[in-house]
């Protein structure tokens, strides 16, 4: 089947369609760089979606739990080997993604007789200041994009991702508390999950709030926080989503 | 590209070996140089947890290499390691433990249990037996870790022999060249003194620890001791069920007050 170039291209195209089809309906994950740190948010019904990777690194993903686990484990192995053999300060998201994960994902995607990775991934690196934060969007075929700070939305639909990113940029003010930011991320999560477009008239704030609350009633909201102000070496802290039940604004994390 | 999976999940030492980066690589043909040694460390229970202390001197033969060594190391927020012996080996062991515990916690999504932590250090000591037998890499550490089995969690003290045997200390443990003096005083205070170490407040425990090091330094030239007038203090760390606290030099000076040795 793959001995002719045309058939190989066709097989790769089919594989891409298959993966995209499998990822439809996946629960989006969202990241936001803030003055106090980086917030990672996902909504899980089974296995987790937001994970600590190393001292200043975390990831969030949508897709098949077994594939998320493979990539999570590969990232943890690579960062801990780097930190041990060189130094924790040498662990860099740019090198992890460009020279490690991207190559592995591409190789896996193009090996037609192996199972493809069913997942889309977001990685975060905490900098000393918000402009030094780095967010990485990594696709199932190994393509990736790095961006300094801001917002990153990972969902099954590229147009909704772009719309959610634009909308969040317009809504996120540096003075907002983390609970207010988490609520906005959940509103964007609900709209991406339900396929609600971000251009034209958006549902009202009340509808958006009711929407995500109803959609997460039987799920677990996962909130990870890379804390810029922490004195600990490991900056990642899980946040309690119960804080979202109160009225905004609530205090920022310690 | 990724090394084959280990049969033991979350095993960082296994990952290093699969990546051909084994820790504590030894040369069985090594000749005996004059090696740097670090002494003296001890730990005892006080009313609020465990205090672990060490002087800051490292020696090589009769040469003082430095008076600024940190011998009590925070492995993570529920483990402390105090090193006595050859710093080159001991610091490498501390680094392996630090990375191993964090690697396990992150990869397995749960912290390593206290018994597994204690055995992880025993395994490193066993791996180091060839160097210890040659007299160039002996390490006799103390370990304190939080046991999360009881409620509330409780810190516990462990000591080792150079071959890796592990023992739990009920009240106190000491290691290094000044340890004989310190163990004698701790045993006396435990049996006849008042307050007993386990009844001491934090300030009393800090003062007691500093005086122990001052006394050990009187009898052992390899122990750096404490000299407030020269701003020379010890490394003191507190392990509670809730985490680790480092005692600053200012706090040590305040706790010692005018309680220095009589002339």
Would you write up a description of this structure?
The complex is a heterodimer of chains A (254) and B (263). With 254 residues, chain A is of the alpha+beta class. Chain A is 39% helix and 23% strand. Chain A contains 6 helices and 10 strands. Chain A has helices at residues 5-23, 65-85, 93-110, 158-171, 178-193, 205-215; strands at residues 29-34, 37-44, 50-54, 57-63, 119-125, 134-138, 144-148, 151-154, 220-227, 236-239. In chain A, α4 (158-171) runs antiparallel to α5 (178-193) and α5 packs across α6 (205-215). The radius of gyration of chain A is 18 Å and the shape is globular. With 263 residues, chain B is an alpha+beta fold. Chain B is built from 7 helices and 13 strands. Chain B has helices spanning 12-18, 87-108, 114-127, 129-134, 179-191, 202-219, 249-256, and strands at 36-38, 41-46, 49-54, 58-60, 63-66, 72-76, 79-82, 142-147, 154-160, 166-169, 172-175, 235-240, 243-247. In chain B, the strands form 3 sheets. In chain B, strands 11-2-3-12-13 form a 5-stranded antiparallel β-sheet. In chain B, strands 6-7-8-9-10 form a 5-stranded antiparallel β-sheet. In chain B, α5 (179-191) packs across α6. The longest helix of chain B has 22 residues, at 87-108. Chains A and B meet through β3, α2 and α3 of A and α1 and α2 of B.
Tags for this entry?
heterodimer, A: 254 residues, alpha+beta, five-stranded antiparallel β-sheet, 6 helices, globular, disordered C terminus, B: 263 residues, 33% helix
Give a quick summary of the entry.
The complex is a heterodimer of chains A (254) and B (263). Helix content of chain A is 39%, strand content 23%. Chain A is α+β, with helices and mostly antiparallel strands and 254 residues long.
């Amino acid at each position: 089947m793959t001995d002719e170039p045309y058939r190989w291209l066709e097989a790769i195209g089919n594989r891409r369609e298959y993966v995209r089809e499998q990822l439809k309906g996946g629960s989006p994950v969202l990241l936001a760089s803030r003055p106090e740190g980086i917030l990672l948010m996902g909504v899980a019904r089974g296995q987790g979606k937001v994970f600590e990777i190393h001292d200043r690194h975390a990831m969030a993903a949508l897709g098949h739990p077994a594939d998320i686990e493979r990539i999570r484990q590969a990232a943890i192995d690579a960062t801990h080997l780097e930190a041990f053999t060189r130094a924790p300060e040498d662990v860099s998201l740019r090198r992890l993604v460009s020279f490690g994960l991207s190559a592995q994902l591409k190789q896996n995607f193009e090996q037609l007789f192996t199972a493809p990775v069913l997942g889309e991934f977001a990685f975060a690196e905490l900098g000393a200041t918000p402009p030094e934060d780095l967010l990485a969007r990594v696709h199932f075929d190994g393509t990736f994009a790095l961006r300094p700070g801001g917002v990153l939305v990972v969902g099954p639909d590229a147009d909704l991702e772009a719309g959610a990113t634009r909308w969040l940029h317009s809504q996120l003010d540096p003075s907002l508390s983390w609970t207010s930011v988490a609520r906005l991320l959940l509103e964007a999560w609900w709209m991406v999950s339900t396929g609600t477009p971000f251009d034209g008239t958006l549902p009202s704030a009340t509808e958006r709030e009711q929407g995500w609350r109803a959609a997460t009633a039987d799920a677990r909201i996962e909130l990870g926080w890379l804390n810029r102000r922490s004195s600990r070496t490991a900056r990642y802290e899980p946040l309690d989503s119960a804080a979202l039940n109160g009225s905004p604004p609530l205090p920022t994390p310690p | 590209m990724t090394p084959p999976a280990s049969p033991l999940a979350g095993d960082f030492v296994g990952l290093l070996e699969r990546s051909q980066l084994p820790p504590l690589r030894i040369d069985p043909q090594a000749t005996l140089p004059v090696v740097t040694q670090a002494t003296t460390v001890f730990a005892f229970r006080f009313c609020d947890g465990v205090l672990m202390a060490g002087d800051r001197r490292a020696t090589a033969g009769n040469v003082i290499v430095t008076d600024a060594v940190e011998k009590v190391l925070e492995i993570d927020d529920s483990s402390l390691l105090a090193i006595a012996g050859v710093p080159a080996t001991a610091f490498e062991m501390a680094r392996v433990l630090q990375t191993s515990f964090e690697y396990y916690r992150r990869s397995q999504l749960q912290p390593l249990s206290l018994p597994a932590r204690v055995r992880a250090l025993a395994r490193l000591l066993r791996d180091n037996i060839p160097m210890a037998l040659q007299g160039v890499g002996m390490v006799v550490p103390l370990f304190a870790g939080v046991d999360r089995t009881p409620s509330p969690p409780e810190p516990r003290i462990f000591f080792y022999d150079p071959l890796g045997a592990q023992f739990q200390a009920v009240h106190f443990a000491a290691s290094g060249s000044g340890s004989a003096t310190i163990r004698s005083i701790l045993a006396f205070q435990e049996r006849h003194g008042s307050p007993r170490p386990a009844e001491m407040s934090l300030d009393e425990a800090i003062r007691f620890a500093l005086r122990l090091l001052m006394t050990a330094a009187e009898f052992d030239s390899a122990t750096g001791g404490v000299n407030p007038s020269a701003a020379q203090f010890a490394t003191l760390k507190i392990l509670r069920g809730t985490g680790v606290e480092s005692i600053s030099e200012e706090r040590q000076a305040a706790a010692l007050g005018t309680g220095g040795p009589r002339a």
